[in-house]
Amino acid sequence: MVHEDGLHCPKIFCDFCEKQIAESGNVVWLCDLEKDEQCATSILFAHKGCDKQYTSDGAFYLWQELDSFLFYLFNNSKIDFNKAKEHAKLLASF
Fold it and tell me: Are strands 7-9 and 44-47 parallel, antiparallel or unpaired?
């Protein structure tokens, strides 16, 4: 969370350079398919290019574009989009 203009705003920051990811970025995670078919693991957020230092060691990493990751995350959460939009409007009115 970042405090801006009297509001607490959720934002995503790169786990490598620690700057805000405002447009394009990747979600990166280590996956050893031989040990874990499901690949249940922690994720890292990265600017494109910043993740190269993480993925350059020869291990098997999976990644996804940030925009599609957020879409899938929202979809998998089973949150009602219209209710969430109304709730966000209500919170923005304070």
Answer: unpaired
What pLDDT score was predicted for residue 76? 92
What are the angstrom distances between the C-alpha of 62 and each of 11, 36, 58, 86? 22, 13, 12, 34
Write out pLDDT tens, residues 45-87.
Answer: 888 888 776 665 556 677 788 888 888 899 999 999 999 999 8
Which ranges constitute the DSSP H helices of 1-94?
Answer: 52-55, 66-76, 81-92
Match 């996956």 to its residue by tokens.
31
pLDDT of residue 83: 93
pLDDT for the residue numbered 80: 92
Residue 60: CB partners within 8 Å, gap ≥ 6?
30, 31, 32, 33
Query: 40 has which bridge partners?
Result: none
